[in-house]
UniProtKB/TrEMBL annotation:
Keywords associated with the record: Coiled coil, Cytoplasm, Repeat, RNA-binding
Basic and acidic residues biased stretches: 81-93
Domain K Homology: residue ranges: 55-129, 130-198, 202-270, 275-343, 344-409, 414-482, 486-555, 560-628, 632-701, 706-775, 779-849, 853-931, 932-998, 1010-1078, 1082-1151
Protein name according to UniProt: K Homology domain-containing protein
Length: 1223
């Protein structure tokens, strides 16, 4: 039930304020700078410890001279051994190689699939190795243990020992087992057989015939006796299950334990056969489970306490007879316990509608617990059929049933459940976005609404709750469905780049459109999907109007957001942007455009410009002019026939991109697609333009003559081998004739096609040469090289990262290092394409040579600087390691002094390992990174200018130069600013600070002139006119005269308006304000009384009607804001008296028409005033410890900018450009 607010003297008592602690209720997020916990990677298997499924493997073994069975029996190239090995090779599909040494030993190498290699090895040993025979005597009863199921054990033993084992058949009365095979295998097989026989000889088995009725005493309560015997003697006791017809108890295990257990069991059976008597009793079958108990605990307890066995009827029979067996003296006690257990629990049932179950249970079972306090003593089950089942003690069941049925009676009287049919396709509309609509219905009417799952395809929505709430919710759902069925949907295609502009900042623009068309829903596609479709759905009448309005907005935006791009060489970007973005901002402000630079890592060299078409063209012209001033950039026009242009542009401008890249990045612009112009523009440095001009003209000439195109397919990893070192190979093919060879770009979807362009004969020649190279690259070879085993770990370190790098760089060749168990620890195998293998081999030799000449030197760097060097996850140190191929190790923080070193402590020593020459260069680079500190004096009044708004300026200087700048606090009254970083970075930063100081001094005089102010007196009633709607008028004055205008705020009742700026501009602004006041004073004002009920009619939707009236008569109309006294008084003001009087007459006519219409419409309507419910008192919340409650004058709470620790790590800039930026 809903809780009610207590009433005191007829009014709701004021709720106590809720106190919240900001630090507890709004905890701070974890610091982003917290070190991430690295997860250990799972161990990788050794390179030689795993073979790819289906891959060939190789095995090798040696036969000594005295083990060879066919040695010396034949001569020549085709010996008996070779013939037999060839036969085995043919049978198993493997390759077998034989090699005989001078001492008579025979080396056998077998390669092929792993399973076949194992089979071939066994056969070769049988054929070539000397065979011997041995007999082993094993008792006949143990033979089955050696054979195993279907002979599997025997086969496994033969395969393992390479022998043949002959076990006599069961019909043969012999214990002799014959073993034939190599001496070593024969001995291992014999030892295994004897070991199995010895183990079996220690075991014994006993069988005891006992009637099934004695099994309960044999087992004991809860199998306690059997478990005790099994654990004590380590034996197995098998008692037949109840469904079995067998009555033999089997005991197996060690002989002594088996005999002891068998004696114990036989004694129990013999005792019960003498004294056990039986007694039968009939008890209702429904009560049997209470006698049995959970996991037969009831029967076990009776057996333990009385020694009487309780036998229950079979489950599949209808019998209710229970049999008790045991000592006659204890049968009575057992019977008493059986009756007590049977009558201890009863069951009952209640019929309750299924929808009430949830209400009876309540949230987390709270309602049910309140109805049935002794919930633990009675089991209540709510069935899907609607029934409620009770189980427990008789008195508990009766109380629970009565309480629940009383609650059911109350719910039946107050609540209801109804269903409404709604087509499944409309269910999502009933739910609303994020469940908002259905939640609103639930909250307003206090009901539960169950909407079926989509998979059921049901059209019934059920509503449960108070009868009145259910009725209202059903009505609202029906009204909503009727409205939705009257809806219309329309798709509009609008460029996706305009979607964000249509939505507006924070959804402001689209919300205005939604207010204009409240029944229409606008759905935009996901930003990650390349879709231009906007869906408009809503009332049929409004959808078309909304679509037209949206299309008009899109058209206006498209006109004001025209986009074009201009090619700018990347080396000029920093000059185009200017210091702090000054140049690019100036262009943006002058042209009112948005300018986007490409990403730093992008191959694109075009800057995008967005805005109105004429502004975009102006901005592009300025950018091109700036580039021309920075370098000798020229523009040349050449003539190329229109029919040839299409051939050159085709293929996604592939040819043009290749020419632009070849000629130093010039920009080539062809006429529009349907243009008849023959002029082609080339823009770039003079020499590059001349080169591109020649290439284009030659290409155009060839295109008109005998010209051909073709492609060659090659794997991407082959491209670098086709190109050759420094482009030597590909340039040789090109120079042999007039042919252009173009490899795929990074952005191309097809990364295998190499395009050829040239005369027909030259293209055919070049294609043939390329295909020959590719064919050679596709040939797979296997190379072997020797690498000292001590260097193997270097290639396998950190998950074999170095090895993978070599493989990736060389066409994914397979490099195999020998495993730990291999005999040859020096041979490394490389498989793959010939040139890739040779390249990988050369790389491995280079690394090994570096390690052979590896040295370790110590560089003294104070430990205080180590954190700075390792900042940003050690990125700069890693770059030095990668550049010089060395390893740099910093000492641990807890490292003690090194032995024999007195000049410097161990914590200052940084170890560099690698090639001697590389170590020296790395040491120099590392020392260059050690930060230094320099001090520059800056006047205190310039500190704030240097810091910038929100620290923007000083943060930019620190990021650009990768330094740390420490500005003293205000209370220190110090002019010294400390700059910390590398030598070059610190010097560059000092220059930037000096430039800022010069700029500050230049602006000082201008700031002084701008501080001039004057005060004018304007009556307060005219202030609102000067401010204008939403401050439009005063903002225009500020912008026009470049001044600051301060008007009284809040409850300040003063006529003074302060104007601050340049003196001439401030006086001009004051004159314009005074002119505005004079114009307002000269207006004709007339007041007219109009019935307040007609005001909405005169105003119209969103003020549409009143705006038209004001435009028609050239007047201003003001309506009262309050609803009290003077609510009917409307003010009309204007420059001309006649216009004001005409407008007043027009308004009175509108009032008369409205009142006449209102009287006719409402003369038969009885107006009933409904008493409005009093609003509930708002709850008060008091927050303590919030940031806005801190002392702003405290330097501890609000520290000054730049007062960072000079020893802290410098801020690392994200890059010269970072991601695409807009200025």
């Amino acid at each position: 039930m809903d809780s009610e607010t207590p009433i005191v003297n007829g009014n709701a008592s004021e709720p106590a304020a809720q106190v919240m602690d900001y630090t507890l209720d709004f905890p701070a997020l974890e610091s982003s700078g917290a070190p991430a916990v690295a997860r250990p990677l799972p161990p990788r298997p050794a390179a030689s410890g795993w073979a790819r499924p289906g891959a060939d493997v190789k095995t090798k073994f040696v036969l000594e001279a005295d083990e060879r069975s066919l040695k010396g029996k034949s001569f020549g190239p085709n010996t008996d051994e070779q013939q037999r090995a060839g036969k085995v090779s043919k049978e198993t599909g493997t390759r077998i190689e034989l090699s005989e040494a001078r001492d008579g030993t025979l080396t056998v190498i077998i390669s092929g699939p792993k399973a076949k290699v194992d089979e071939a090895r066994a056969k070769v040993i049988r054929e070539l190795q000397t065979q011997a025979t041995r007999e082993v005597v094993i008792p006949k009863e143990f033979h089955r243990m050696l054979i195993g199921k279907a002979g599997d054990t025997l086969k496994a033993l033969e395969a393992e020992t390479n022998t043949h084992i002959n076990i006599p058949n069961r019909d043969v009365a012999s214990d002799v087992i014959k073993i034939t095979g190599p001496r070593e295998g024969m001995e291992r097989a014999a030892a295994h057989i004897q070991r199995v026989a010895a183990e079996q000889a220690k075991l014994a088995t006993e069988h005891i015939a006992a009637a099934r009725i004695y099994y309960p005493w044999v087992r004991g309560p809860n199998n306690e006796l059997i478990d005790d015997l099994t654990s004590r003697f380590s034996i197995k006791i098998n008692i037949p299950p109840p469904v079995s017809n067998n009555e033999i108890i089997s005991i197996t295990g060690e002989r002594e334990g088996v005999l002891t257990a068998a004696a114990k069991i036989r004694a129990i059976v013999a005792e019960k056969e003498v004294i056990a008597k039986s007694l039968t009793v009939s008890i209702n079958r429904a009560q049997h489970r209470y006698i049995i108990g959970k996991q037969r605990s009831g029967i076990a307890e009776i057996l333990r306490s009385t020694g009487i066995s309780v036998e229950m009827p079979e489950v599949d029979t209808a019998s209710d007879v229970i049999t008790l067996r045991g000592d006659p003296a204890r049968l009575g006690d057992a019977l008493t316990q059986v009756y007590a257990r049977a009558s201890s629990t009863i069951t009952a049932q209640s019929k309750v509608p299924l929808w009430m179950h949830r209400l009876l249970i309540g949230p987390k079972g709270a309602t049910l617990s309140a109805l049935v306090p002794n919930r633990a003593k009675v089991d209540i089950d709510f069935d899907d059929s609607g029934d409620i089942f009770y189980e427990g003690a008789p008195e508990e069941v009766s109380a629970a049933k009565a309480a629940i049925e009383a609650e059911v009676a109350r719910l039946t009287k107050e609540c209801a459940m109804e269903t409404v049919k709604v087509h499944p396709t409309l269910h999502r509309h009933v739910i609303g976005r994020g469940g908002a609509l259905v939640s609103k219905l639930k909250d307003e009417h206090g009901v539960t609404i169950n909407i079926p799952d989509e998979a059921t395809n049901s059209d019934e929505i059920s509503v449960e709750g108070k009868k009145e709430g259910v009725k209202k919710a059903i009505e609202e759902i029906k009204a909503l469905v009727a409205k939705i069925e009257n809806e219309k949907s329309k798709d509009l295609i609008i460029e996706q780049r305009l979607h964000k502009l249509i939505i507006g900042q924070g959804g402001k623009a689209i919300n205005e459109l939604r207010k204009q068309f409240p029944s229409v829903n606008f759905s935009f596609p996901d930003v990650n999907k390349k879709s231009d479709i906007i869906n408009v759905r809503g009332d049929r009448k409004e959808v078309d109007d909304a679509a037209k309005a949206l299309q008009k907005i899109a058209k206006d935006l498209a006109e004001s957001n025209f986009q074009d791009s201009v090619p700018i060489f990347k080396e000029f970007y920093k000059h185009i942007v200017g210091k702090g973005g000054s140049n690019i901002k100036k262009i943006r402000e002058e042209t009112s455009t948005r300018i986007d630079l490409p990403d730093e890592n992008s191959e694109e060299e075009r800057i995008a410009v967005t805005g109105k078409k004429e502004n975009v063209e102006k901005a592009i012209a300025l950018l091109q002019k700036m580039q021309s001033e920075l370098a000798s950039v020229v523009t040349v026009e050449i003539e190329i026939p229109v029919k040839v242009q299409a051939r050159m542009i085709g293929g996604g401008r592939r040819v043009l991109f290749d020419i632009e890249k070849e000629c130093g990045g010039v920009y080539i612009k062809f006429p529009a697609e349907k243009s008849e112009s023959t002029k082609v523009t080339i823009n770039g440095p003079k020499e590059d333009v001349e080169k591109a001009q020649k290439v284009l003209l030659d290409l155009a000439k060839d295109r008109e003559a005998n010209f051909a195109e073709d492609t060659v397919k090659a794997k991407p990893e082959f491209h670098r081998f086709i190109i050759g070192k420094g482009g030597a190979r590909i340039n040789k093919i090109k120079s042999a004739g007039n042919v252009r060879i173009m490899f795929p770009r990074q952005a191309d979807a097809d990364q295998e096609s190499i395009h050829l362009l040239g005369t027909k004969d030259e293209v055919v020649r070049a294609k043939a040469e390329l295909e020959a190279i590719i064919k050679q690259l596709n040939e797979t070879v296997e190379l072997k090289m020797e690498v000292n085993a001590k260097y193997h770990v270097h290639f396998k370190r950190v998950g074999a990262q170095l090895l993978k790098e070599i493989q990736d760089q060389n066409g994914n060749v397979v490099i195999s290092f020998p495993g730990k168990a291999a005999e040859d620890q020096r041979t490394v195998t490389i498989k793959g394409i010939k040139q890739c293998c040779e390249s990988a081999k050369a790389r491995i030799e280079e690394i090994v040579d570096d390690m052979d000449h590896q040295v370790t030197i110590n560089v003294e760097i104070p430990a205080v600087h180590h954190r700075v060097l390792l900042s940003n996850r050690g990125q700069r140190v890693q770059e030095i390691q990668s550049r010089h191929n060395v390893r740099i190790r910093f000492p641990r923080r807890d490292a003690g002094p090194a032995e024999g070193e007195e000049a410097a402590p161990a914590e200052d020593q940084v170890a560099i390992s690698g090639r001697d020459s590389a170590c020296e260069k790395a040491a120099e680079d590392l020392k260059a990174l050690v930060p230094i500190s320099k001090v520059i004096e800056v006047p205190i009044d310039a500190h704030r200018f240097l810091i910038g708004r929100g620290g923007e300026t000083i943060r930019k200087i620190m990021q650009d130069n990768d330094v740390s700048i420490n500005v003293p606090k205000d209370e220190a009254q110090s002019e010294e600013i400390t700059v910390s970083g590398t030598v070059e970075a610190v010097d560059a930063t000092l220059e930037d600070i000096r430039a800022k100081l010069k700029e500050y001094e230049e602006q000082a005089e201008d700031r002084k002139l701008r501080q001039w102010s004057m005060t004018i007196n304007v009556p307060t009633e005219y202030h609102q006119k000067i401010i204008g709607i939403k401050g439009v008028t005063v903002n225009e004055l500020r912008k026009k005269h470049d001044v600051n205008i301060s008007l009284p705020k809040g409850e300040e009742r003063t006529d003074e308006i302060v104007i601050q700026g340049y003196e001439d501009k401030a006086r001009a602004c004051a004159a314009e304000i005074e002119a505005m006041v004079e114009a307002i004073r000269s207006l004709i004002v007339s007041e007219v009384v109009l019935d307040v009920r007609c005001h909405p009619r005169i105003i119209g939707a969103r003020g549409k009607n009143v705006r038209k009236i004001m435009e028609d008569f050239g007047v201003e109309i003001k309506f009262p804001r309050s609803e009290g006294e003077g609510a009917d008084l409307v003010t009309v003001s204007g420059k001309e008296e006649n216009a004001v009087l005409d407008c007043v007459d027009y308004l009175k006519n509108l009032e008369e028409d409205f009142l006449a219409e209102y009287s006719e419409r409402n003369q038969f309507i009885s107006h009933r005033v409904q008493e409005q419910p009093k609003p509930a008192a708002a709850s008060k919340v008091e927050i303590r410890g919030a940031p806005w409650q801190l002392d702003i004058s405290s330097s501890a709470e609000f520290p000054d900018m730049g007062a960072a620790n000079p020893s802290a790590a410098p801020v690392v800039a994200a890059g010269a450009w970072g991601a695409a930026r807009r200025f």
